[in-house]
Amino acid sequence: MSAALAPLRHRPFRHLFMGTSANLIGNGVAPIALAFAVLDATGSVGSLGLVVGARSLTGVVFLLYGGVLADRLPRGPLLVGSSVVCAASQAVVAVLVLTHHAAIPLLMALAAVNGASGSCYQPAVQALLPQTVPAESRRAALALSRLAGSSATIVGASLGGVLVAAVGPGWGLAVDALSFALAAASFALVRVQVARPAPSPGVLHDLRVGWREFTSRTWVWVIVVAFCFLNAGITASLTVLGPAVADTTGIGRGGWGLAVAASSLGAVVGGVLSLSWRPRRAILAGCALMGLMAVPPLLLVLAPYTWVLVLADFVAGVGVEQAGVAWYSTLNEQIPEDRLARVYAYDDLGSFLALPLAQFAAGPAVLLVGLHATLYGAAGLILLATLAMVATPSVRALSPGTAPPLPVSGERVPG
Questions:
Q1: Fewest Cβ atoms closer than 10 Å to its Cβ: which of 38, 168, 196, 356?
Q2: Which of 338, 404, 332, 408 is nearest to 136 (CA)?
Q3: What DSSP assignment string belongs to 80-92?
Q4: CB contact at 8 A, 205 and 48
Q5: pLDDT tens string for the chain (415 positions)?
Q6: CB atoms within 10 A of CB 5
């Protein structure tokens, strides 16, 4: 256990650890608070899809540029700036909700600002983490970071459910704004020494270099493409369809918060497990376990009961965390450090490309074919994507030592 906690001895990692934890506590609150704020204001699933989709859309549009910035600028200060803008935008949303001036076009505009400013967050955090600890502690640092993130999400989701039920969604959004401000303060204290990047001919050249790193490994792009469809099914269920079911069944708003928190609790257990257990074919096992995410949307149709949903979300969370640790640790081992943020940006772009479309389409789909049929479709999408990953030979064959880093000469790319 001492080896598992070794990364905490390093000050840069501790500050990064605290910043990401603060950020994720607020982000655990935000989806619940925002969903019920929009439903209270409009009673419309379609309006909810428009608001959450606006954030996802700008996050996707600016994601690649965010990856380039995270490889070309100091990552700590970049995270500070991103967190400050996100804090300001969420604070304005909270004020609008609390004062009953939350018009849908204005909420969409603020959500778009939040998505654009947060576009560099994930690539920068994931690429900065290996720089905060020695090489031998990187896998433990990743597992600890994800463990803390899951724990923070549990706290956030539970707090979100309590705040929404007790005092209303506006205060949940205010907590989210505060969390971004605390994260900015922590990120400002991260100090790492990195080599100055070589002069670049421009953004397009940087994107081409990152694209080469991304596409040269078949197992990488196959999994990312599959997650594009898998995440579409998950996010439609989690951010639009699930709250609509909860509001019209015995689950209720507090029960939905518990179900979301249970998924994160499962991820905590999965994170603890990943500190000491690593299957030989970790990527294949993780991909297969993603199929568990099809169970919650099915249960929303077949058995919409709080504790059944809580149990299913917990088990799915354990499996998802195994996939996450295997994925990120392998990328950190195989991708050159000075291009890692760009590969993470392509990863996020591919994985999340369909999210705004899924969120925008969820409302019309419910009107067209009904809520239950839409949930069945989301579950089917998750299962098909899972099958595509586990059936791919390069994914099935991948194990430690079978995917050495590809030789790269300078910054040259094909063409």
A1: 196
A2: 332
A3: HHHHHHHHHHHHH
A4: no
A5: 566 677 778 888 889 988 888 888 877 777 788 888 888 777 777 787 788 778 777 877 777 777 777 777 778 888 898 899 989 988 998 888 888 887 888 888 888 888 888 777 877 887 788 888 887 777 778 777 877 777 776 777 777 778 777 777 888 888 888 988 999 999 999 887 665 555 556 667 777 777 888 888 888 889 999 998 998 898 888 878 888 888 888 788 788 888 887 887 888 888 778 777 777 788 888 899 999 999 999 999 998 888 999 999 999 988 888 888 888 877 877 777 777 777 777 887 777 777 777 877 888 888 898 888 999 999 999 999 999 999 999 888 876 555 444 433 333 222 2
A6: 12
The amino acid present at 64, given as its one-letter code, is: L
CB 182 within 8 A of CB 352: no
Exposed/middle/buried for 20, CB within 10 Å: 0-12, 13-18, 19+?
buried
What number of residues does the chain have? Answer: 415
Query: Under the phi-then-psi rule, with left for phi > 0, alpha for psi from -120 to 50, and beta for the rest, what region is 321?
Result: alpha
The token pair that represents 194 in the structure block = 């990195």
Sign of CA dihedral 85, 154, 148, 296: negative
What amino acid occupies position 91? A
> Which fold does the domain 9-191+201-397 belong to in CATH?
Growth Hormone; Chain: A; (1.20.1250)
Whole-angstrom Cα distance, residue 74 to residue 61? Answer: 22
Residue by residue, DSSP assigns 342-382 as HHHHHHHHHHHTTHHHHHHHHHHHHHHH-HHHHHHHHHHHH
Within a 10 A sphere around the Cβ of 65, how many other Cβ atoms? 16
